[in-house]
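Hi there. Long-time user, first ticket. I'm pasting a complex I've been working with (about 472 residues overall). I'd like to know whether the download I got is complete or cut off, because the file seemed smaller than I expected. Thanks.
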Amino acid sequence: MNLLLLFISAAIVNNFVLTYFLGICPFVGVSKRVSSAVSMGMAVMFVMTITAAVTWLIYHLLLVPYHIEILEYVSFILVIASLVQLVEMFIKKVSKPLYDTLGIFLPLITTNCAILGLALFSVLREYSFIESLVFGIGAGAGFTLALVIMAGIREELELSNIPKPFRGAGITMIVAGSLALAFMGFAGLISM
Amino acid sequence: MEINTLIIAIASMGGLGLLFSAGLSLAEKKFYVEEDPRIEKIINELPGANCGGCGYPGCAKFADVIVAGEAEINGCPVSDDEARKAIGEILGVDVESGEKQIARLMCQGGNYETAKKAEYAGIKSCLGASIFGGGEKMCEYSCLGFGECVEACTFDAMYMSDNGLPVIIDDNCTGCGKCAEVCPQDIIEMHPESHKLFVFCKNLDGAKTARKVCIKACIACGICVRNVEDGQMMMENNLAIVNYDTFGKEANLPTDKCPTDCLAVIGPPVVDKPAEKVEA
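Hi, the file is complete. Here it is re-exported in full:
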């Protein structure tokens, strides 16, 4: 399968946030500023890529040969949790203000269904190692894209006169829905 | 289910867990961030409102700065004496208690007292109004009535009265000073609780103009200054000023001689009874 098509599919056509509606928590929670959205996107992309690689290895080199595929969920979550801990430590060391800005959403990447979804998809669709890796990078890129678009829109919205009942969560949900509708325009471009 | 599968499952998951925890502990050594344990303890003693009243972005930052010795423990206006003593204990220093500050609005020019000079159709914010020609009211020193101070208050200690003036709830006010900071007209002042006498006006115009713009303006008639002892009150730039070093700390001072009622003792009289909390 063409790797480039796979990348575009994961990033745009079948965007994890706007098409599959996975990972909505940081999508709404960290998208107030473009800078924090970019940082969050980078963190998630890192976790997704390494997760894609490591979970593929664990599934095909450990779980399948010993017929313990049933431990798929347990081992995947183990991998994701450890990776997120690593990312947390790294960010805390490199940039404490960034760490403070991301706040609780950084450890929440562990429970982000987009990451587990990524791992489970690549098992389901029987990707090879390289395909899995590209899928992970593409998914991370798509997640970052969705987050940054949302952040850009929300930053502009801060200066507008939004009707009282819609302020805060209301307008955010409406914008998210409009974005999802927009991305539906890509549907069927690459079917997988 | 075979016992074999069970053993393999436990062994492999356990092995994976051990492997990852080993990796993580190595990583922690490499990414170790030196942090004074006192900072964590102090953060627990601070109120945690992140109001910025201390001048630093958040309680965690303030705790950092206290331990570094760059700020006084008294710098947090929100924490009570108990919290301050606890912080002092953690650092090993003695703390004396400071006096609580309360926000006071130095203006009585609501919709009833002043008239509008024009209909303001710009952005409905105090800063916006003050940039564009000083707002709607005739007095250019007055409260603009768009409630940026009410929005800035994180302790629910302010609300907008029907008369278009912010009202401060003394009990909830913690003296963080955010309202005073955001007011573009600089008419909210932080005063210690002991200050009781106030001139609720900031109008610097002469008598004729002041009279025209607001029925409660200070017209600089000088009656108050003449009726107290030397130095207790002054007249500067057509505005009466209380000298709080020597005066103004009792609640039973004679204020009946003031012709416009701008000289008063704590809390100016509210013309309308405030209805429910009006969001600005």
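A couple of notes from our side: The two ends of chain B are 67 Å apart (CA to CA). Residues 273-280 of chain B have pLDDT under 50 and may be disordered.
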